[in-house]
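Re: that chain you flagged

S.,

Sorry for the slow reply, it's been a week of failed gels. I finally had a moment to sit down with the sequence you sent. For the record, here it is as I used it:
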Amino acid sequence: MSHAPSATARGEGLPAALRSDGPRRATAVRELHALLLKAARFELSRRSAALAHVRGEELDDLALQAADDAFVAVLAKLDDFRGDSRFTTWAYKFALYEAAVRVRRRAWQHREVLIDNERWLAVVDAAATDPQRRLDEAELLRAIRAGIERLTPHQRDTLVALTLQGVPIDVLAERRGTTRGALYKTLHDARRRLRAELAAGGYGPLP
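Prediction finished late last night. Pasting the structure tokens below so you have them in one place:
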């Protein structure tokens, strides 16, 4: 005789079970962690090209780290779940994100983050003198260069690293001992100030 899966097994009762005590919560904890570990392994497999030199135990350890951090994040945000989607779908995304973070960090593990403002300015100069560009484009690039130079050093370094040198924000946050949120705010402030500088010079509206 077959039995229908329990509400917790389908994920429908997991939020309530995670808020409970005793054996019911212990079961829910195991089910949630297993789900997150499955999601992390899926994401690592999907990004296997970026993990070509990662094998065996190290790959399993990355998946476990991602699942553990996703589990902590899910519990911390449990009260934010509103039931707009299945709980398992909502929770799954936390593990996908954490696994992606680890892939980016692994790719940058042996790479030094160097903020090279002079290199950026040289690129702008090269682009500005390109004979194929119209004069107004060259003037705009020079205005952007001047605007970037007037940013605070922290704003300029963050803007250059994230938008021009392609450093992943979680990698930069880890190297600087700060948070993604703090870097996002710095980046937002830098872009807003740069837009204001350009608008004052008659360039705008800009994205």
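What I noticed first: Confidence is low (pLDDT under 50) at residues 1-10.

Talk soon,
D.
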